[in-house]
Structures are given as structure tokens and as C-alpha cells.
UniProtKB/TrEMBL annotation:
Keyword RNA-binding: yes
UniProt keyword tRNA-binding, yes or no: yes
UniProt keywords, alphabetically: Repressor, Ribonucleoprotein, Ribosomal protein, RNA-binding, rRNA-binding, Translation regulation, tRNA-binding
CDD domains: Ribosomal_L1
Quaternary context: Part of the 50S ribosomal subunit.
Family to which this protein belongs: Belongs to the universal ribosomal protein uL1 family.
Gene name, Swiss-Prot/TrEMBL: rplA
Name of the protein in its database record: Large ribosomal subunit protein uL1
A cellular-component GO term for this protein: ribosome
Function statement: Protein L1 is also a translational repressor protein, it controls the translation of the L11 operon by binding to its mRNA.
Superkingdom assignment: Bacteria
Alphabetical list of InterPro entries matching this protein: Ribosom_uL1_bac-type, Ribosomal_uL1, Ribosomal_uL1-like, Ribosomal_uL1/biogenesis, Ribosomal_uL1_3-a/b-sand, Ribosomal_uL1_CS
NCBIfam families on file: rplA_bact (TIGR01169)
């Protein structure tokens, strides 16, 4: 088993493992216990009371974080003709409008953070599942990344502003970044509040019992900090 270093152990000592913190306390503590020399990412991890094997108990949606993620988001759009021109005008970093682009990505090029496609391109994009799927880059109607040409400006703008997809994995957990350690607590709180609201709205009709069992806040390589799940679900964005 890997041993933790002195910095991690010192940070972990600041966290009371038996306590469920309020969201604001947890976010303050996350900033205090960040141990990286770079501007780490603050993440929220949720343990869901759902059965991931059941199709009617899946959780998948998107949320636009009010203060973004604190990084430059590179957007690639699969589109042709007029839609390609709209994507270019709307600020897409790359517009994949030819078979050469499909081949380039098939060969392993994935220097982008978000992929968006128009419906007519999905027959070609479908061939890229083995490359894009494992990286979470495959356009999907459920995630709002397969849209008609008229919607491209809005979706591109949201992606660059901090549009984040969340989905429950096979172990019934959800992992979502909500910003950088350098963000002040109010911005992290607002982003977390937006996320929690979106997850509540995405609750499947077939969900029974406790919807969210556990909420944890952490930073890149930092210790986990338990958040009171009831308080987390009651968060509202401060005016």
C-alpha cells in the first residue's frame, strides 16, 4: 500500500474524520488542506442511494457553474456547411468538418475538452466511440452536446463558461469538479450550490429511499472532507 507523505498527513490531521461539516466549513477546510504546488481542483464526490444496474435509476445531466472552472475550455464542434460557419463564428476552437478530422481523431488526437456535434454528423462521429468514449468526450443528446445548428452558439458559450456534465458511474458515485483552490469560498459555494440543485432536479422517478447517501469535498491529492448531505441538498446561491 502506498504511503502518504508528510504534507498529506499534516493536512489530513486538520480534518475531523468523524464529523460531517457544513458546506461552507468544508470548502474553507478544502482550501486550507490543499497540498499541491499548483492551483489544484476542488471536487465534489457523491455516494448515491441508487442501483446503477437499473436503467430507470441513472443520473446524467449538465450544469452551468456560475463561476466556471477556472480554466480555458477548448471546444471542438463536428459540423458541416452552414453549421460549421456558425460554430466558427460562435468561438469554437476547432471545427471538424471533414473526413480528415475524423481520421485525425481516430489516430488518437484529442487536444480538446468538450466535443459538440450536430445530429447529421453523428453517423461519422459514431466511429470515434473507442477514442472519445473512454475520455468522456463523446457527444451525447442526453448531455446536451448533440444539438441543431441554431443551438451551437449557446452550447459553445456555456461550455466555455463552465458547463459541466455529471453522471453516476457503475459504483453509484458521481465525481464533479467545481473550481480551483484559488477561488474564494463564496465562488466555490455558489458553484457547489448550482451542482447540488442540478443533481436534485435530475433525481430519477424510480429512486427509492435515501437519494444522496454521502457528500465529500476534496482537492487534487488532498484529504476528503465529509459534508452533511442534508445541508448540501439545502444549499442556495447567495445573492
Amino acid at each position: 500500500m502506498a504511503k502518504h507523505g508528510k504534507k498529506y498527513l499534516a493536512a489530513k490531521a486538520k480534518v475531523d474524520a468523524g464529523r460531517a461539516y457544513s458546506p461552507e466549513e468544508a470548502l474553507k477546510l478544502a482550501k486550507e488542506t490543499s497540498i499541491t504546488n499548483f492551483d489544484g481542483t476542488v471536487e465534489v464526490h457523491l455516494r448515491m442511494g441508487l442501483d446503477p444496474r437499473q436503467a430507470d435509476q441513472q443520473v446524467r445531466d449538465v450544469v452551468v457553474l456560475p463561476h466556471g472552472l477556472g480554466k480555458t475550455v477548448r471546444v471542438l464542434v463536428f459540423a458541416q456547411g452552414e453549421a460549421a460557419a456558425i460554430a466558427q463564428q460562435a468561438g469554437a476552437d476547432y471545427v471538424a468538418d471533414s473526413d480528415e478530422w475524423i481520421t485525425k481523431i481516430q489516430n488518437g488526437w484529442t487536444d480538446f475538452d468538450v466535443a459538440i456535434a450536430t445530429p447529421d454528423m453523428m453517423s461519422k462521429v459514431g466511429r470515434l466511440g473507442r477514442v472519445l468514449g473512454p475520455r468522456g468526450l463523446m457527444p451525447n443528446p442526453k448531455a446536451g452536446t448533440v444539438v441543431p445548428a441554431d443551438d451551437l452558439p449557446r452550447v459553445i458559450r456555456e461550455a466555455k463558461a463552465g458547463r459541466v456534465e455529471f453522471r453516476m458511474d457503475k459504483t453509484a458515485n458521481i465525481h464533479v469538479p467545481i473550481g480551483k483552490v484559488s477561488f474564494d469560498v463564496d465562488k466555490l459555494y455558489a458553484n457547489m450550490a448550482a451542482l447540488m440543485d442540478a443533481i436534485k432536479k435530475a433525481k430519477p422517478a424510480a429512486a427509492k429511499g435515501t437519494y444522496i447517501k454521502r457528500v465529500t469535498v476534496t482537492t487534487t491529492m488532498g484529504p476528503g472532507i465529509r459534508v452533511d448531505p442534508i445541508q448540501a441538498q439545502s444549499m442556495v446561491v447567495k445573492e
